[in-house]
């Protein structure tokens, strides 16, 4: 099968995000200028550089009260900071609860029954139970082609790793089993890893 996206795919559901899988989930916490906390998952997320460490996520829809975007991007525009919270399998239901189209004044931490912790390097809340948290300062917001498509880039200024997720000095994903986004309504979980050495190593 071949199709041109501008002409449509003719399938019951869009296959694009089922092709680009698995995708890590950026569970983004942010705080608005009014002091309200927000927490929402984004499946267009990844790390993009080592030195200095940098990450990005993209928001692709809008709310009527947020000037053409969503609460996360709106808050980050106001304050210039955000935190990425790693999603483990055990927190899948809490993560899903925060994905709803909640009103601007809803605190998703409270809605999902999640304890907050304050970040160390930025004025923002983080998910206390997450296996890891990346505290970030905004570097740029890039408007992408298409309505309400914004890519948010941040430099990581602080990193939290849960002590029980460490094995012999390494962050061990098998200790918590990261959740990944697939296509449609599907998710996957990391339960197995293997090593490949690069040529010449």
TrEMBL record:
GO terms for molecular function: oxidoreductase activity. Signal peptide: none annotated. The keyword Nucleotidyltransferase does not apply. Pfam families: Flavin_Reduct. It comes from the Bacteria. Keywords: Oxidoreductase. Residues 18-173 form the Flavin reductase like domain. Its EC number is 1.5.1.-. This is Flavin reductase family protein. The lineage of its organism: Bacteria, Pseudomonadati, Pseudomonadota, Alphaproteobacteria, Rhodobacterales.
């Amino acid at each position: 099968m071949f199709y041109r996206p501008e002409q449509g795919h003719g399938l019951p559901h869009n296959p694009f995000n089922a092709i680009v899988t698995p995708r890590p989930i950026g569970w983004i916490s942010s705080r608005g200028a009014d002091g309200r906390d927000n927490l929402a998952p984004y499946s267009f997320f990844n790390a993009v550089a080592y030195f200095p460490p940098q990450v990005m996520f993209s928001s692709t829809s809008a709310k009527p009260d947020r000037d053409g975007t969503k609460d996360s991007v709106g808050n980050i525009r106001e304050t210039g900071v955000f935190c990425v919270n790693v999603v483990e399998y055990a927190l899948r239901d809490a993560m899903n609860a925060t994905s709803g189209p909640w009103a601007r004044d809803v605190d998703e931490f409270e809605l999902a029954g999640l304890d907050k912790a304050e970040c160390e390097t930025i004025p923002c809340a983080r998910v206390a139970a997450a296996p890891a948290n990346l505290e970030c300062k905004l570097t740029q917001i890039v408007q992408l082609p298409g309505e309400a498509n914004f890519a948010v880039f941040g430099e990581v200024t602080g990193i939290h790793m849960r002590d029980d997720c460490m094995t012999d000095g390494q962050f061990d994903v098998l200790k918590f089993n990261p959740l990944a986004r697939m296509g449609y309504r599907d998710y996957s979980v990391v339960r197995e890893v293997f090593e490949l050495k690069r040529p010449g190593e």
